[in-house]
Amino acid sequence: xxxxxxxxSLSNEARxxxxxxxxxxxxxxxxxxxxxxxxxxxxxxxxxxTEKLNMNQSTVSQYLSIxxxxxxxxxxxxxxxxxxxxxxxxxxxxxxxxxxEL
Length: 102
Fold this sequence. Notes:
By secondary structure, the chain is of the alpha+beta class. 56% of the residues lie in helices and 14% in strands. A 3-stranded antiparallel β-sheet has the order 1-3-2. A hairpin with a 2-residue loop joins strand 2 (73-78) and strand 3. The two termini are 15 Å apart.
């Protein structure tokens, strides 16, 4: 676990919002816009995250890339669309690390 990279990735309000929203995606995103994709297992489309953050897609894609490099989200590509979901195992390990080590 690259703790420094993880904590750096969490030092941005928009990235924290993304992780918060992805925890319970059905509470924060329109399932009908996902089509046949199950947001609980596959994830949420970048376009929906972009719309919710009210930012341009390149910035949101960069934020998601940072979270992915830190191991906090998984990306799944279906056709021309990319979907993101949380990496719950890594998030639990971070919580354990903070509790046990810090």
